[in-house]
Amino acid sequence: MSDVLKRALIGQWRHTARGSSLAAGHQVCEALVPVMVGVVIDKAVATEDGGALLRWVAALAVVFAVLSFSYRFSFRAAERASEQAAHGLRLELTGRVLHPRGGAENGRLPGELVNVASGDAKRVGAVHIALTAGVAALAGLVAGGFALLLVSVPLGLVVLLGIPPLLLLAHLLGRPLERRSGTEQERAAHASGVAADLISGLRVLKGLGAEATAVNRYRRTSRDSLAATLRAARAQAWHDGGMLALTGIFIAVVALVGGRLAASGDITVGQLVAAVGLAQFLLTPLSILAWANGELAQGRASAARIAAVLAMPPAVSGGTGDLPPQIRGEIRLRNVSFGAVTDLSLHVASGETLGVVAEPAAATALLRVLGRAADPDEGVIELDGLPFTELDPAAIRTAVLVAEHDADLFEGTVLDNVGAAASPGAITQAMSAASADEVADSLPEGTDTPLTERGRSLSGGQRQRVALARALAAVPPVLVLHDPTTAVDAVTEARIAAGLRKSRAGRTTIIVATSPALLAAADRVVYVADGGVVTEGTHADLVHGNDAYRATVLA
C-alpha cells in the first residue's frame, strides 16, 4: 500500500471506523432477518401460538429499526471520510505544485495536474466508502455463516471455509484492473492536458492556420486515451464477471447442501426457510465485496499517480536563509551556465536599469535562473552579495520579481489583477506608467470591469499593459521584465518606456527585450550571443557600433 493511501486512511480512520462498525451492524441485522423468520415459523406459526407470534414480530420490528439507523449513519460517516480525505489530498497536491522550490510540474501539462488533483484524489477518497462497504460485507458473510452453523453445521462450515479462498480469488481478479486503471487515468489526464493546452492557444493556432495540426495532435492523444479506457473497461468486465461467477458458484454450493439436508429431514421447515433466506442474503455481501474490491484496485492505482506527483524532486534545492533587512538590489552573475546560457558573467548595479538583448532560448534560460525557477548548472547568482542558493526561494521572489512575457491575468476586475497586495498610491502610479489607465478608461466600468478567464475579454496589448501594471504595483527591489510591450503600438510603447524609467527610478530593473524604445530608456544594454556577453554600452552606441546588435533590434 502506498504512503499516499496510508495517509488518506489514517487521517480519517475515526470516521471510517465508525461507519464500518455501523455498516457491520446493518449487515448482521440483515442476516438475522431470515433466521428470525424461520424461528417465527417453528415457534409461532407451527404451534399456532398468537402471543409468541406478536413477540417475535415485535423483535423483527426492532431489528429493522436498528438496521435502518445503522445503514443511514454508517454511509454518512463513510461519505464524510471520503470527502475529507479527497479534500486533504487536493490541498497536499496544491501545496506541492505551488511550493516555492517547484518541480511538481516537470513533464506534466497543467491539465494533467488538475486531473490528478480532482479525479485521482476523489478515487482515493472513495476508498473509505469501499472499506466501509467491504467490512460490512465481511461482517455479513461471517454472521450469515454462523447463523447457518446454528441451522446446520455443514452449511455453516461451507460458508465460513469458503470465504478465505473467495477473498483471495477476488484480490487476484483485481490486479489487472488496478494496472489498467492506472494507465487509463494517465492517458485521460494527458488528453485533458492537451485539450486545455490547445484551447488556451486557440487564437494563436487560428492565426497560424494550424487548426488541422492541432486537431490531429488531439485526435492521436484522444485515441490513446480511448484505447486505455477500453482496456480498463475490459478488465472491469472480467473482474465483475469473474466475481459474479464466483459468487454464483458459492451460492449454488450453499443451496445444494441445504437442499440435501432438507430432503433428508436433518433440518425443520423453519430452518429450511432460514437457510434459503440466508443463501439469498449472502448474494448482497458478496456483490458488495466484488464492488469494494474493484474500488480498492482503482484507488491503489490513483494513489500511485498522486504519489508520483508528490515525490517529484524539487527544481531548486538548498537555501533557507532570510533576506537582509534592507535590499539594495545589486545582482551579479558569475560564470553562469544553464540551457542556452554558457559562462555568463554580468553585474547589475543597485538602482540601474539594464537592457538585455538575447536570442529567445538564452532569454528564457536567464529568466528561469533569475526567478530561481531553476538553479544554474554552473556558476553563482548573487543578490547584494548573497548567493541565491543560500537564500530561501520564496524569500528571493519577494525581492526579485520576474514578469514573464506571457503572464496570465485572472478572473476578477482590472483592479483585482493590478492591486492584489499593493497600496492605492502604488496602483495609481503603476497604472499610469504602464498606460493601463487608458485601458481602464476604455472599459465600461473602468477598473471595476470584470475580466473573463485569463483576461481574454481584453486585447493582447491591453492584457500586456495590465500585466505590466501588476508587476510595477508590487514595487519589488529588483524587477525583471521580458518583452512587456510586444503587442502595443509604437506610440504607446514609447510612453510606457518613459513611464517605466520614471516609476522605477532608484530601483534595479532588468529589461530582457529587443524593443528599441525600451532599450533606449535603459542606463546600459548588454548584447548576449552564443550564451555570453558580446558587447555592452548605451542603446545608441550599440546601434551605431555593432552590426549584429543593430540587425537584432531594428529588424
Report what the structure shows:
The chain is an alpha/beta fold and about 550 residues long. The protein has helices at about 5-10, 15-45, 50-95, 110-125, 125-150, 155-200, 200-210, 210-265, 270-280, 285-310, 360-370, 395-400, 415-420, 425-435, 435-440, 460-475, 490-505, 515-520, 540-545, 545-555, and strands at about 330-340, 340-350, 355, 380-385, 385, 400-405, 410-415, 450, 480, 510, 525-530, 530-535. The strands form 3 sheets. It has a 6-stranded mixed sheet, sandwiched between helices. A hairpin with a 2-residue loop joins strand 11 and strand 12 (about 530-535). Helix 5 (about 125-150) packs antiparallel against helix 6, helix 5 (about 125-150) packs antiparallel against helix 10 and helix 6 (about 155-200) runs parallel beside helix 10. The longest helix is centred in the middle third of the chain and has 53 residues, at about 210-265. The two termini are about 60 Å apart. Residues about 200-210 have low confidence and may be disordered.
